[in-house]
Amino acid sequence: KTRPRRTPRDGAYGRLDDAGRLMKKNRTDRPTAVLRLLVVSEFVPGRISRFAYTEASGLFHVGLVECTTSGGVWRMAFSCFNRGFSILSGAAAPAPAPAPTPSSAIPPAFAASPPPRSQMEQIQHLYLDIAGLSLHVADLGKGESGVVVFLHGFPEIWYSWRYQMIAVAAAGFRAIAPDFRGYGLSQQPPEPEKNASWSDLISDLLAILDHLSVPKAFLVGKDFGALPAYHFALLHPDRVSGVITLGVPFVTESISTDTPPKGFYMSRWQEPGRAEADFGRFDVKTVVRNIYILFSSSELPVAGENQEIMDLVDPSTPLPLWFSEEDLSVYSTLYEKSGFSFPLQIPYRKMQQFANFADPKVEVPALLVMGEKDYVIKFPGMEDYIRSGMVKKYVPDLDIKFLPEGTHFVQEQLPEVVNQLIISFLNNHTS
Asked: Which residue windows does the record flag with biased composition (Basic and acidic residues) (predicted)?
């Protein structure tokens, strides 16, 4: 317990570069690859242990390693780490493991490394005066290949797109990620209970494009951000190169006649004052934490008769491995600023006011990325609506990609996979 902690900087495992990434050594003592992450799990003596690592290129590897050391868990972990690292260095060969596929390249248990601080610092933060409100827009890239606008969901903000912004900018596109009015660093209208409107999100998006002199853009929407993305494409098809949505397809009122279960979270949050009382028992950080945990599950959030939605989360439940305490702090800081007044109106309490089109048809190319462990797929009628192809009645030029291990926050959980799908779509539809 009193032994000084060793660090791997210039140690036997390799050297940490200035960004804190591990550079493995080969037999000539020269770094051969930069490792973003090395994870060894299942520390059981005499059993097969699993390891996984990512290179700086984003390539993901998994393998199996014999771990025969006896003793306590820390000794076993240390042995497995040594054994796993010797495999990475070429001193031993791992047992065969299934080759990753584009849809399942990264197991959900392994976190992606955060974007380098230097890349995050390149993101510009603009404040645009639109309809009497100051709207925050994150902006990155020169846009030689085109412009991509990212529209967040709940409980998200522009920061939810950090991995995607950096990736598409590196691919030659300009990445624009606004905070919707009432969210993040954007102002909210006075009395959101009266003045929150879906149509304002559409007009705000049009004004942002005009203000930034963007004649045409790809729209990427997540969660409820899919709704303004698709409706903008219906209203302004000449301004849209294509639409990508994550977790939510193009939806109409006719998806299903089934009703959600009693205690369904959306129904609860649509009741005036109920979510405010529920959330008010906790600080903002705990509320955001609980919602992220709930929405990362594959099950619908449904409260019992004597429960509120926040009661569904055991306080001891950890955050998803791909969502760090630092990430949580970013989100909670901005929700402390904005509060939940507007987010409870848009999307929840104003959902019935969302405009519906007679016989809508989206004419631009589109991509839907859906995690098979996304709780949204269990909405009444949702899975059949997608898998049967019924959604293509409204979006004829739609490509659908299912990610077997994907959850609702798939762009943060599996950023390399999602980035690859997005950039491939952008390149295929860039004239």
From this structure: 15-25
